Amino acid sequence: MQMIKSNDEARTVIVTGAAGGMGRECCRYFCQLGWHVLAVDHNKQRLESLSIFTDIKVLCIELEDIKLVAAVNEILDGMPPLWGLVNLAGISKGDSIENLSEADWQMSFDVNVTAPFRLIQGVYNRMHQDSQGGSIINVSSPVGYIGARKPSYSASKAAMHGLTTSCARNLGQYNIRVNLLLPGTTITEMTSDWSAERQQSIADQSLLKRLCTPQEIAEGIAFLLSEHSRYMTGSILDMTCGSMWGH
Questions:
Q1: Which of 211, 111, 113, 201 is nearest to 164 (CA)?
Q2: What is the pLDDT of residues 181-222, one digit of tens each?
Q3: Which helix (H) or strand (E) segment is 145 a member of?
Q4: Domain spans in the chain, listed from the N-terminal domain onward
Q5: What are the Cα distances from residue 154, in Å, to 29, 90, 205?
Q6: Would you give the distance in Å from CA 55 to the centre of its chain?
Q7: What is d(CA 58, CA 154) in angstroms, rounded to the nearest whole number?
């Protein structure tokens, strides 16, 4: 169901992690709403599948690459004014604290926190000048609050909360909103490999007794990007369907 309409002005939204299950659906849905998308990911094959959409430009790059911001800005020069940034990409890397390597700890923060920081810092001024404002969404995880077997993953996701609220404080003066989205377990390529028993066991932890769909995540992010959420910043959109309550 298409509930959010774009305005008549063409706008651009950056999506990282665009080649994943949630990312591809976000790109598709945003194009359906009339937005232009810069899709960023390191998976070249999956990125190329997005090229069927005329309003999507793709950038294949590792998020920890120091050239990320320069590459993004180069492509944005040929696109409509920048309105949105969706920091969706993330990795779950590492082990329990007894066996966690410093390299895995550092990689988790490089991808999950440092890349979003660099992108926010690298494009906010363009967003302010091109669109007189904008919306940034950082996608975190419930493990940032309840913990996980991998401290590297949960700690990096917890850091996204502090990054979000601090940037909301910093950028409000430019009419740029910064919010956090917490997705529940979502049906993607990863969950499709799980047994039916495991899927149902995790689904039973939610109040609706089912898993989230990529379409629902895309619609939640679109809401935060749109004018419908124009008085929301520094906020958390909880899409875990109550599954955190049982922890």
A1: 113
A2: 998 776 666 566 666 777 777 777 778 877 778 899 999 999
A3: helix 143-146
A4: 12-241
A5: 29, 11, 19
A6: 19
A7: 29
22 in Cβ contact with 41 (< 8 Å) = no
The pLDDT tens digits of the residues spanning 105-148 come to 999 999 999 999 999 999 999 999 999 999 999 999 888 777 78
The amino acid at 139? V
At residue 211, what is the residue type? Answer: L
174 is annotated as an active-site residue: no
3-state secondary structure (DSSP) of residue 138: strand
**Model pTM?**
0.90
Residue 27 neighbours by CB under 8 Å, 6+ apart: 15, 18, 37, 39, 50, 53, 56
CATH number of 12-241: 3.40.50.720
Catalytic residue among 124, 145, 153, 174: 153
- Of the CA atoms within 13 Å of residue 38, those in its CB half-sphere come to 27
Q: Is 7 exposed, middle or buried (0-12, 13-18, 19+ CB in 10 A)?
A: exposed
